[in-house]
Structure formats: C-alpha cells, structure tokens
C-alpha cells in the first residue's frame, strides 16, 4: 500500500467509525431498523426485488407503528439504490434505514449508506431488528495484525494464521513418537534414545511446516505465538528449531490443552493480553517519542492552534489524534477579512465569535463548521503528513486527550511555533 493509499484508508476508516458510532447509539421502538449488506458482485436489481418482497411481507406486521416504520425504511432504501448502476461500488455497500426513537414517543427517520468498506462484503445479508447491525463493519475496522500460530505436543501439531480477529488453520502433522511404554526385549537405554530421536524429528518437522508458511511472510507479520502443554512448547522453543528470524518474533508461549485445530483458537484466547499489548505498541512508541521531544527536544507540537499552524507549514511528520477526540472546527472570516478557526465540542451549538485580531464580532451563522479530525487530516494530507490515531487505553494515550486536547504532532524540523 502506498503512503497515499494508507492515508486515504485511515481517513475512510475514521469516517466509517464515526457513522458506526452514531448508528450504534440508535434504537427502534420495535423491530424496525433495517440493515442490508450487499457484496460487490450482487446485481442491484436483485437487491431491489428483495426489498420489494420484504416491503410486501411487512404488511403482515400487526403493530401499525412498526409496520409503517419498516415500510418507510424499505422505501427509503429503494430510493437510495436508484443512484447506483447495475452493481455496488468496489467491496460492496451497506445500507441502514429506520425510524429511531428520539424520546417522548417521537421518532426520526435515519438513512445511511456506506460504500466500499475496507474489506469485501462476503455475502448478502438482510437484517431487521430493534438496532442496526454494525458488527461486520466493526470487525473490518479493527486493527489488522498478522500473527503466526503454532500449537504442538509430542503427538500432533497445527500451524495457522491469526489475521485480524480471524483464526485460519493451515497445516497439521502427527508424530510417530512411541509412547512411554517400551516393548519387551528392548533395552531401556536404546528405547529412550529412539524416543528422543523421534521427538527431535517431530520438532524438526513442525518447524519445517511453520518455516514454509511463515518465512515468506515474515516482513508482514507482527509476531509468532506458540502453544502447547509443558514441557513440549519449551523444548520446541529452547531447541531453536524455528528459523532464527521467526524465533526472534516469538511474542510468548502459552499453555494450551489441545493441539488439534481447536488448539489454535485456545492459543489466541490464552494470548489475549499479549495481543492487546501488541496492538498498542505503535501508539505507545509514538507517545514515548512525543514526550521525549516535549521534554528534551524541539520536535513536539500540541493543541489545535499550534498543530494547525505547523501542519500548514508542512512541518508535521506525524499528526497524533486521540481516538476519543470529538470536536468540530468553526471557520470564521471577520468583516476586516481575518480568517480564524475556533475549536468547539461536537455536540455544542455554533457560538458567536469575536475576532482575536480586531475584536469585530462575527455571527454564529457566518461560521463554517467541520469535524476537527477531517479538517486536520485534510491539511496534513496535502503535505505528506501521516495521521496516527492514539488509543486512550494507556496512560500516555489518556494524557494526549486530557492534557493536550487530543491533538499533537511530531515535527520534521523545528519551527519555533
Ligand atoms: Zn478581524
């Protein structure tokens, strides 16, 4: 992915997250909120036919309010589908529509269309419930890691992938290691030696299987997880059976009772904390660098005004935005032609504004309002700035939001702003 594509996809993910967050806040008083997932190869005429069918079946709904609400939602979706040609855009599209509760027995009609999600939509889904179906989209937006998985004991082994949140078993092997019981006539010493040899051979076979699968992808991978009972997993790792680059990528070894395919799932469960930690690694490194620059360097900037100025100069290498930032920017031009920007809470009404340079007051209606993250990312995009969204699930990430207003940057060069 080029830097520009990465940037676009960051921005698109942010747009999606915003819509999903909004949709998740809605409730229907009845089973009346419609969600439709359409894969890119689905003919839209088929979708329209499906919606028409649902519309006619909805006439059987007993509650008049729910019936009307469902039919209105379906009509609204059909209207939206008219804007498209034969097929949905790349990766498909998702349509949401329904009468949401706004309190006091009142409802409000909401219709949203999300085009081209980050991953292809796999299958057509029609869903009508008291809330919108957002989980499949949320899964696509989750941070994507790629981890190699190995589970083994002395009898069998499985290797596979963890891609995002999905476990993918790939290969398995079973061993010819003899049990602990020796046959009559064999010397105890000879039996023990043969057994160790067989174990060693099996570990080599498992390592070969893992190397074949992981080594070609090692630069894309985020780590390797190894699971099994003791002492097998320890012997396997201590014996350096894996390719040395993979060996260096091992994030941990975990106790797992089963070593069949289900063991791969158990391994991911057991590694939950390590995976969560890893997900925040980049965020943590960036924030460490920010604090280092803040105290001992001159490449840190923070707060809306300062960061915005630096962005405009093209001086920002990385724009750091708190994932929990919910602000809008209002752009004003006063009667003397001064352009000014004011940062306000997303849920606040647009305030009046006094020009900080000449004191002229500007009417609230004269301000142009925009989401603050959109505004800043847009500025950065034109100047090759990378945007990093920082989680608030660790101390320095929380500080970005509470102490620095959720907006900061690492500079390419010192600007003195
Ligand atoms: Zn002015």
TrEMBL record:
Positions of the eRF1/Pelota-like N-terminal domain: 4-142
Molecular function via GO: translation release factor activity, codon specific
Q: Name one GO cellular component term.
A: cytoplasm
Q: Does the keyword Cytoplasm apply?
A: yes
Recorded hits in Pfam families, A to Z, give: eRF1_1, eRF1_2, eRF1_3
Keywords, A to Z, come to: Cytoplasm, Protein biosynthesis
Its subcellular locations are:
Cytoplasm
Q: What InterPro entries does UniProt report for this protein, alphabetically?
A: eFR1_2_sf, eRF1_1_sf, eRF1_2, eRF1_3, eRF1_Pelota-like_N, Peptide_chain-rel_aRF1, Peptide_chain-rel_eRF1/aRF1, Ribosomal_eL30-like_sf
Q: Does the keyword Protein biosynthesis apply?
A: yes
At the top level, the lineage of the source is Archaea
Q: What does this chain do?
A: Directs the termination of nascent peptide synthesis (translation) in response to the termination codons UAA, UAG and UGA.
Q: How does it assemble?
A: Heterodimer of two subunits, one of which binds GTP.
Q: Name the family.
A: Belongs to the eukaryotic release factor 1 family.
Name of this protein? Peptide chain release factor subunit 1
